[in-house]
Amino acid sequence: MLKSIILAAGKGTRMKSDRPKVLHTIFDKTLLGYVIEAVNNTGIAEENYVIVGHQSETVKEYLERNYSGTKTVLQMPQLGTGHAVSLVVPHLKDYTGEVIILCGDTPLITSDTIKEFVGFHRSSKADLTVMSAIQENPTNYGRIVRNSDDMLEAIVEEKDANAEQKNIKEINAGIYCLNWGKLSNAFLSLSNDNAQGEYYLTDIVKWAVNSGLKSCVYILKNNEEVFGINSKENLAQATRYLNDRIIKKHLINGVTIIDPLTTWISPDTEIEADTVIYPSCYIEGKNKIGKNCKIGPFAHIRGGVVLEDNVKIGNFVEVKKSVIKSDTNACHLTYIGDSEIGSNVNIGAGTITANYEPLSKIKSKTVIKDNVKIGSNSVLVAPVTINESANIGALSVITKDIPKNSLAITRSPLQIIADWVVKKTKKI
Ligand code: UD1
Ligand code: CA
How would you label 291-304 residue by residue, b for 16+ Cβ within 10 Å and e otherwise? Predict the structure, then answer.
């Protein structure tokens, strides 16, 4: 088991946003959430420390609500990455095990890579392991400086690098594994005598080398995993990278995705084989989609959705927090929210479950039992239950529970006034 430190105190000026950088989202999960989950899913982290600073209250509140076991350490002011980690030293005074350090703005890192990285650290019997990557354009990253024996010597930041060092394409990915018992003293002796006047975490490398500790480098194969978010442009790029990864997984698992470029699927959506996703669908949040379903084109699945097998969610249909049982169709222009829908139900075009009362802000549930048929353009005003095999006439507004096998209809009777046009014209 090990402990993790996740750096998340920085301001993120280039995001041009009032929101703290690490709380920006990809689908509806925050950047910080991705990093914490990647660490937690390794199964080897017993405790996570998140360094908070900029808008610390907002970040802390978010963590308490979503990742309650996480510890936070306040860094105020933010004097650099080394300063950030040094603030954890008093919390881990008697700890001598391993610590992994990551950044809260690299959401694409995977649990598998973290596990492999820690495994490499252990099998190399290293005291400090740095994750590196080879970048064709290394600008702005810290560079990995090796000695004549190819061993790690130092990390030099872009702003402190000489011309020769700037040509190095091996960069510091910003992820470290260290034997805390041997390295924690390094944080007490960092200096800010550098181009940025900051306490650099990267200076622990020189300290380890000078102290005769074993320092190793793990070269990451897939650069994309340490793609850092510094701007809205980066956020959009990372969303695309993550989506490509998810789409590929579903294709391998036997899901048919007609157009990977316009299909967006959140990482927490499960889809069974032989379901077809048509172009231009947006699927966010946690969902479970069964076998042989048809989704889209132009469908929006907003999270908390369970679709059993053979369900059709067609064009311009939005579904959130709902369970829809097998063989049910909602093929066109429909909103289904906070609903429980049975098997073999047909939801006509333009049906709305009116689940939200804006004055009281109360959301209510719609229950539709097996074999129900809902006529087009109906509004089901929740809370409401439509019992087994009932039929709702087109254009009805349903405000009461409907007993099974009955027809409910609120439409005003059709009137036909013969020759109305002719009479009207004569009067003029
Ligand atoms: C850092 C590394 C650089 C590496 C790069 C990889 C240092 C000195 N440099 O540079 O070698 O190539 O990451 O992405 O570490 N943070 C705090 N407190 C602070 C400063 C930063 O918590 O006082 C947090 C930020 O919120 C961010 C992370 O640390 O999550 C990295 O900080 P950032 O300023 O982005 O470092 P880089 O310049 O990218
Ligand atoms: Ca950065």
Answer: bebbbbbbbbbbbb
Handedness of CA 193, 197, 203, 204 (dihedral sign): positive
pLDDT at 427: 76
What residues act catalytically? 332
Contact predicate 388/361, CB 8 Å: no
Closest CA to 8 of 86, 60, 61: 60
* CA 98 to centroid of ligand 2, rounded, Å: 24
Q: Whose CA is nearest to atom 31 of ligand 1?
A: 103
Other Cβ atoms within 10 Å of 1 Cβ, number: 9
Answer whether 0.90 is exceeded by the pTM: yes
The answer to whether 301 touches 284, Cβ cutoff 8 Å, is yes
Q: Give the per-residue pLDDT at 284.
A: 97
Q: Other CB atoms closer than 10 Å to residue 106's CB: what's the count?
A: 22
Tell me, using a 6 A CB cutoff, whether residue 105 lines ligand 1: yes
Cα–Cα nearest to 188, from 55, 85, 56: 85
**Measured distance CA(144)–CA(238) in Å, rounded:** 24
- Ligand 1 atom 1: the closest Cα is on which residue? 174
For residue 93, give both structure tokens: 């005074």
Gap between the Cα atoms of 336 and 318, Å rounded? 6
9 within ligand 1 shell (Cβ under 6 A): yes
Quote the CA–CA distance of 293 and 329 in Å, as a whole number: 10
User: What are residue 172's phi and psi, to 5 degrees?
Assistant: -80, 120
Ligand 1: which residue has its CA nearest to atom 34? 10
Low-confidence ranges of the chain (pLDDT < 70): 428
DSSP-based three-state secondary structure for 173: strand
Question: For residue 375, how far is its CA from the centre of ligand 1 (angstroms)?
Answer: 57
